[in-house]
Write a structure and sequence with these properties.
The protein is an alpha/beta fold and about 120 residues long. About 25% of the residues lie in helices and about 10% in strands. The relative contact order is 0.11.
């Protein structure tokens, strides 16, 4: 039987058992990525804590500094909000009854609708 040929594109250019500093590990992960989509990376950190002791328990959350997902297209329905005000707030579309009429005709170029209680009866039609 012939030996299995390995694709040179699929070969890693580092030793998987080595330890790397964070910036170098991120660089290697990006260089060796085979996906065509935004992939994620799991990080495991060994802290050598004895969680049975109350002074060594660790709980918390982490806020990442950059958003890395798909941007949401937001529509705000409010009688007092102008397009200029909406752009300043980071909203793509804003309006009132005219926009509701466009939605009734089939316009759905948004991911999320934010509205005021006064606009809800018009929107429910």
């Amino acid at each position: 039987m012939p030996a299995v040929k390995t694709n040179k594109k699929n070969q890693l250019n580092f030793n998987k058992l080595d330890f790397f500093p964070l910036n170098e590990a991120v660089k290697l992960a990006k260089e060796n990525s085979k996906t065509k989509f935004t992939s994620s990376v799991d990080v495991a950190i060994k802290l050598n804590l004895d969680t049975s002791k109350s002074d060594q328990q660790l709980r918390g959350t982490l806020q990442l500094p950059h958003f890395f997902g798909k941007q949401k297209r937001i529509l705000v329905l409010d009688k007092g909000l102008t397009q200029k005000d909406a752009k300043e707030l980071g909203v793509e579309h804003a309006g009132d009854s005219e926009v509701i009429a466009e939605i009734a005709r089939g316009w759905i170029d948004f991911d999320l609708i934010i509205t005021t209680p006064k606009m809800m009866p018009e929107l429910s039609n």
